[in-house]
Amino acid sequence: MLVEVDSLDQVAAVRAAVLAAADRGDLTGLVELVPAARTVLVSVQPGTNGLTRLRELLADADLTHPPRPARHEVRIPVRYDGPDLQLAAETAGLSVTELVELHSGAEYAVAFTGFAPGFGYLVGLPEPLVQARLDRPRTAVPAGSVGIAGEFTGVYPRSSPGGWRLLGRTELALFDAHREPPALLVPGDTVRFEVVR
Amino acid sequence: MRAVTVLATGPQALVQDLGRPGHAHLGVPPSGALDGPALRLANRLVGNAESAAGVEVLLGGLRLRADCSCTVAVTGPAVPVTVNGRARDSHAPVPLADGDVLELGVPDGGLRAYLAVGGGIDVPAELGSRSTDVLSGIGPAPLRAGAELPLGEPVTLPGGADELGPRPVPDELRLPVLLGPRDDWFTDPAAQLAAGSWEVSPDSNRIGLRLAGSVLARAAAFEGVELPSEPVVTGALQVPADGRPVVFLADHPTTGGYPVIGVVPTAALPALAQARPGTRVSLFAQYSDS
Predict the structure, then answer these.
(1) Which of B131, B122, B123, B116 is nearest to B18 (CA)?
(2) A90, A171, B4, B88: most buried, per Cβ within 10 A?
(3) Backbone phi, then psi, for B228, in 5-degree steps?
(4) What is the 3-state secondary structure (H, E, C) of B158-182?
């Protein structure tokens, strides 16, 4: 079932309501719970009455006051030496130093993942940093690159093509299938970037 | 150590089990054998759990040597199987002695044969599965000549008497489509699906089956509209900007930014694993009662 809502806050509320129901045994057979920008995919095992139960749950859910789950905070050390630092500062009308302070001073939340394993779309970007993608995407963005695009900031888990404006790099491994948990960033996590000089 | 050694592969040979569903929120595709029933049958024939890892062989050409005595079975479309050059049955348990060489020929129809070995292919699992995911690179590397594949311990004796022979591979597929979630983005979606005709494009792979042919037109209100990326499921019929649909298969990206007009039900997907480029495809809207 694809649940469509009006905002990222409501996405978080739907996700929290489904997780809470599964945790207290009120929804069995949950296979996938995938938040995105305005939608949440909930898939359940065939043969359970999960879809009926889900409809009941969502009809009763209060989406205006998302429950605050226990928050897991992730700190990501970043060397701010990205190729688009100057461009982003000019667009924002700031000096590079001010831009770095702004980006590393804010608190972000992982709204959802996608694009590649471990790629988290982080929200909470200060307004001056809400900027367009590059006109021409790069064919290869190095792993660990920290970028901004639209209302999101994020870190490329591995080398891939990409159109985000790149501010810096981290040495942290965002995704490692042999690690438990494999992904550094999970929807709902809080994220802060720390300046490495 | 019980093992088999790969001597040659055809166009592609991958370790596959039933995949790693449950990780889509991390951006990880489900992966797993495209023709799940074929892998399950092969496993039953050699006495494995249905979920054991085997080899998915695209268009034959796999040759391997047993480095211990073991039982194998080959399923999927009808495919020539030889041991030390002598013909053996597909869809039946075949005992191999230490040193025997097994070879799979090219199927007359269909694309993917499945090889199970008693004990299962015991490479390390990643995120609970041994499947190779060609989109994100999770799981073992595609097989190459020289690769030694460790085997697990056999759990029961080979089954032997499974009644399922090779399924015929049709040269035309008629695929049901459960409309939604974005069928409202298209003018009269059910009629457009029924009127269109397609064939499987050679660009198809484990990520998606691309359909060449009729263009699905968006409703006027949605022309040029961008969809915020949303989660997609296996079987989703996504319609990119050019209007030519793609059916997402096991290694599909977990989110997509183009509207999904409908979803091909799970039961219809194994046939897609065997659909060669050029196979004619028709689509019809099916309404679910749930």
Answers:
(1) B131
(2) B4
(3) -60, 140
(4) CCCCCCCCCCCCCCEEEEEEEECCC
Task: Determine the Cα–Cα distance for residues A90 and A113; give it in Å rounded to an integer.
Answer: 29
Residue B288 pLDDT exceeds 80:
no
Asked if A36's CB is within 8 angstroms of B27's CB, the reply is: no
Chain A residues in contact with B25 (beta carbon < 8 A): 32-35, 112-113, 186-187
* Sheet order of strands, B81-83 included: B86-88, B81-83, B101-104, B63-66, B3-8, B148-150
Comparing A65-79, A132-146, B76-90, the range with the smallest average pLDDT is: A65-79
Query: Token digits for B239?
Result: 């319609």
- B253 CB within 8 Å of a chain A CB: yes
Residue A151, both tokens: 């209302």
Backbone angles phi, psi at A87, to 5 degrees: -60, -45
The span from the CA of B270 to the CA of B16, in Å, is: 14
Q: A67: pLDDT confidence band, cut at 50, 70 and 90?
A: low
The structure tokens listed for B157 are 């004796």
d(Cα B233, Cα B253) in Å, to the nearest integer?
A: 9
**Count, residues in chain B:** 290
Residue type, B140: P
Q: How far is B160 from chain A (nearest CA, A)?
A: 30
pLDDT exceeds cutoff 70 at B126: yes
pLDDT at A25 over 60: yes
pLDDT in tens, B193-240: 999 999 999 999 999 999 999 999 999 999 988 888 899 999 999 998
Tokens of A87: 């461009």
- Rounded-to-integer distance, Cα B144 and Cα B113, Å: 17
Set of chain A residues whose Cβ sits within 8 Å of the Cβ of B21: 31-32
Nearest chain A alpha carbon to B20: A31
Q: Do the strands B198-200 and B208-213 form a parallel or antiparallel pair, or are they unpaired?
A: antiparallel
Question: Mind listing the pLDDT tens digit for each residue in B61-90?
Answer: 999 999 999 999 999 999 999 999 999 999
d(CA B214, CA A172): 46
Cβ contacts of B27 within 8 Å, gap of 6 or more: A113, A114, A115, A116, A117, A118, A119, A175, A183, B136, B254, B255
Nearest CA in chain A to B180: A2
